[in-house]
Design goal:
Elements: H1 6-20, H2 35-51
Length: about 60
């Protein structure tokens, strides 16, 4: 996820949140994330928090 792909990622996440109300993101295949990618993820998380305060975030640590 980088400057070139972050806008499409953010649009897809926002669209999915609008349609489904929640998104499960599996980043296990992601090998690189720059600040633009992080910004897209944070923006999606913020939107999810506004839509559903108190929603549960789950994650898996690196192995």
């Amino acid at each position: 996820m980088d400057l070139a792909t972050a806008p499409a990622l953010q649009r897809a996440l926002v669209d999915a949140l609008r349609r489904r109300g929640e998104v499960v993101l599996d980043p296990s295949g992601v090998t690189f994330v720059d600040c633009a990618g992080l910004r897209a993820l944070v923006a999606a998380r913020d939107r999810a928090d506004r839509q559903s305060p108190g929603s549960v975030k789950r994650g898996r640590g690196a192995r």
